[in-house]
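Lesson 9: reading folded outputs for more than one chain in a single document. The general rule is that every protein is listed as its sequence immediately followed by its structure tokens, and records are never interleaved. Here is the first one.
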Amino acid sequence: MKEDVGKQKIDEKLLEGIEIAYTQVVINADRKHSRFNRNKILDMLKIAAYMILTALLYSCNAREERTLMSYNIRNAKGMDDVTDCRRIAGVIKSLDADVVAMQEIDSVTERSGGVFILEEIARHAGMHLSFSASIPFQGGKYGTGILSKEKPLAAKSVALPGREEKRSLLIAEFKDCTVFCTHFSLNPEDRLLSVAIINEYAEGYKKPVFLAGDMNDVPSSKVIAELQKSWTVLSDTARFTFSSDDPQICIDYIFVRKTDRVEVLNATVADERIASDHLPVYARVKCPEKQ
């Protein structure tokens, strides 16, 4: 209903502009004694206004809806043991993701042949990148990343506990929302400590906050239960995400802060069995209209 009222107001303003433009054209035509076909001019103006209106409404709807994705890419190494950044980018483009939270990424390590894996994927996908280095590794760094169609306003990294391997939280702030990306520790105590840290940082944002990543825990776990005290699961936890060749558990998620109400339009796990050892998780959501 609100959308119809908004459209009506836009229509009225555009029609008002048409009449003003038409009047000016006619006045100028009379002044110059030109033989203008006034009906033809009006028709042309109406067509132009309709095109502008369609583009404007499409743009507004596109901004309200966004596809979020979480994908542990195993450094772009597929189940066929082939490292292929272009293939990962193809998965992202096929799902038309607006923001992708990614885990297990090498930055100029020996293992990756000195290649910044996230940069290569971003180049093939045509997206902006943000990177969080969790640990130094083989002459480079290893961590998590976020790819986005929209350039982030800001991005920062926060250290998270990990006894077997240090972890981190990557925060990318956008115009209308903020996205958290992480890869939890294998240690359950560290995972619980990470939840508290994430909740503390989430309090600092007034715009909607999404959390996505590999939580290394199942939906029935204590860790996910603790997360759900402050976050709502958007992804489909009934679908398993690991391992991709024979999925047996769900450990990859997308959440939204409980105080941020969004409508889930579609949420599922993509059936991509080769590109990584995890399946990509995504959710199409509609954010509330600004007041």
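And here is the second record, again sequence then tokens.
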Amino acid sequence: MTRIVAFPKTGRPDAPQAAGRVGLPAAASLTEVFAGAAGDAAAAGFVLAQLGRAGGPVLWIQDQLSRRETGQPYLPGLRAQGLGAGRLLLLTLTRPADVLVAAEEGLGCAALAGVVAEIWGDPSALCFTATKRLALRAEAQGVPCWLIRHGATADLSAARDRWRIRSLPAARHPDDPRAPGDPCWGLELFRSRDKVPGRWQARHDRAADRIDLAATVPDGTLAADTGPAGQCHAG
């Protein structure tokens, strides 16, 4: 049995049944996203889907290894989602420690709609103290921070939400069955301060400007009755 929930790509969920379960944090803070496999672009796609309609520029910082292995966000392809060359500020730095410093400094700018930091592996600079600094700065300034981890392990972290995200086959294209449709992802919220952890199959409905989530039940039994399923439309 599945439970369908849709939440807007910016802000908090609108429907009561969705609140506290999935989506963006209730307030700006640090969210950690682990790619399901090294080089999997699902994590970046999920974050971009959250930030597309946020308004204001987004600072996107990568360490050199992340850029080499995963590439950069493709700006021409992001214009339809509201993130063109004028809104996405790309920065590549050599050391993970420099990425963390730049992210913390960026979070001090209230004009930004968000800060994204991509880091490869488990560098010593990315310790609990470093994540705590990012979380506190994000909450103090009201600027959300997304930390994308590639080829990393989930060690101690001060992130309010921690996700594992992997790519799934794209949805069927409505006009051309041979072409890919909306992107789909497998999501696992394995740690959260204010939400119930769980697993979902997600579809980024670009036309409706939302992300649709279908909760999965591993053993195939009926899920507990949590009320009628609902959708929260963007806008």
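What the second record shows: Helices lie at 42-51, 64-70, 75-78, 96-107, 128-141.
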